[in-house]
Amino acid sequence: MFYDPSNWQLTKTAHSYESSKFQMDLIAHQLDQASFREESDELPVRHLTVLPGVAGTNIANTLLGTLSSIGYPWLSIL
Questions:
Q1: What is d(CA 61, CA 47) in angstroms, rounded to the nearest whole number?
Q2: HEC secondary structure over 12-49
Q3: pTM exceeds 0.90
Q4: What share of the chain in percent tops pLDDT 90?
Q5: pLDDT of residue 33
């Protein structure tokens, strides 16, 4: 593990990408735990981290064209 809590801005590490992902996991975990500590009659709000690569969007339509963005999800299956 490369995370160092004293370097919270990740300026003194060669592994800033991995450490930033770990920071986001820590934040999500703390928020999830806090939502369960609140007393309420409603179900708690859950906090999870997800991989951005599995979120389907049309953000690349303008750059790649509609045909490319339609075909892209099929590439991940192969």
A1: 30
A2: CCCCHHHHHHHHHHHHHHHHHHHHHHCCCCCCCCCCCC
A3: no
A4: 17
A5: 92
Residue 44 CA to residue 66 CA, distance in Å, equals: 39
The answer to whether the beta carbons of residues 19 and 10 sit under 8 Å apart is yes
Give the pair of three-digit tokens for residue 45.
Answer: 């709000």
Asked if 3 contacts 23 with a C-beta cutoff of 8 angstroms, the reply is yes
Amino acid at 34: A
Which residues touch 73 (CB under 8 Å, ≥6 apart)?
56
CB of 24 closer than 8 Å to CB of 10: no
Nearest to 23 by CA among 44, 38, 54, 1: 1
